[in-house]
Amino acid sequence: MVRREDTQISLADALIYQRVKPNNVLIQIDAHVDWEPLRRKMENQYRTGGPGRPGYPVVTMFKVLILQNLYNLSDPAAEEAITDRISFRKFLGLNLDQPVPDYSTIHRFRDRIAPIVDDLFAMMTQQMESKNLILKKGTLIDASIIESSARPPLPGVKTSSDQGATWTKKNQCYYYGYRAHLGLDQSSELIRRAEFTPANINDARLFKKMVSGDEDAVYADRAYFGYERSDWLKEQGIADYIMAQVTVDKRPQKDDIKAFNRAAERVRKSVEHVFGTLKRHYSLARCRYYTLLRNRCHYLMMCICYNLKRQNRLLQAV
């Protein structure tokens, strides 16, 4: 059973908040997001009545996941940090005398919203679009291999504690894990599309899903090259800047193709910086969980948090 937020704070809390240095990142995130549509969406995953003790408000729990990803916290570490840090309590709307969600509650909530995390990501992105932060001049598409947290089995053997992970080969090396896909807005560098698949799913199979359909152009590396995708972009009225491969019938235009690829790469490479940020600061270099559903939810929450911090910077520059 779910309960609604109690936004009233005590006099003691108000006095303490005045003396504590504010966390500007969290304050800006809280101010820039309309939590109400997210609350309605998440509450549909719960009963609104019945026996049992009321749980924590869904927005509070969703903010816990945001804190986890922003500060790279495990479930037990998140419980400890919320207990200890006043700025976290203020962001969550918890008074000093209120108990904090324990690690098992955080774990269960993440599993609860995993089936609707796509909708939550889309709703967040739509709010940023309504602020005219997404300019739609172009979409940068790329994918990256993410290794499983489980010990990899022998090549070709499927027995593993992580049943969602698969083997793939890249640059003569074998990897066991998943593949993260991105569709990035060219000008704002906000993530518009995101997907998480087993590693054996080829980059190009997710190409159409990474295209929003309202952008002027699409930039991608050679892994996405193909006449089928180029023809599809032409049908959509979207400029094609997929880096080309030199095929037999195009050898006479080899120099022109190289010049085209250099021009496309100058724009496309920005998506590599985003993957670098996700891997360095959000610990995407290796999966945290064992199943595809949980790792996918974790990845989309990372993308939400990346967009929230990016939104703060963009709005400050306005």
Question: Keywords for this structure?
Answer:
2 domains; Nucleotidyltransferase, domain 5; globular; alpha/beta; 6 strands; 318 residues; 13 helices; six-stranded mixed sheet
CATH class term of the largest domain? Alpha Beta
Task: Report the span from N to C terminus.
Answer: 42 Å
Percentage of residues in strands = 5-15%
Could you tell me the number of beta strands?
6
Largest sheet: 6 strands, mixed
Strand/helix succession = HHHHHHHHEEEEHEHEHHH
Number of spatially distinct domains: 2
Helix-residue proportion? 40-55%
The 3D shape can be described as globular
Task: Give the structure's gist in a few sentences.
The protein is an alpha/beta fold and about 325 residues long.
Structural overview:
With 318 residues, the chain is α/β, with parallel strands linked by helices. It has two domains: 11-115, no CATH class; 131-304, 2-Layer Sandwich (Nucleotidyltransferase, domain 5). It is 47% helix and 14% strand. The chain has helices at 11-19, 24-32, 35-43, 58-70, 75-84, 86-92, 103-113, 117-130, 207-210, 227-236, 254-268, 270-281, 292-317, and strands spanning 139-147, 166-170, 173-185, 191-198, 217-220, 239-242. Strands 1, 2, 3, 4, 5 and 6 form a six-stranded mixed sheet that branches. A hairpin with a 2-residue loop joins strand 2 (166-170) and strand 3 (173-185). Helix 2 (24-32) crosses helix 13, helix 3 runs antiparallel to helix 8 and helix 5 (75-84) packs across helix 7 (103-113). The chain is globular, with a radius of gyration of 22 Å.
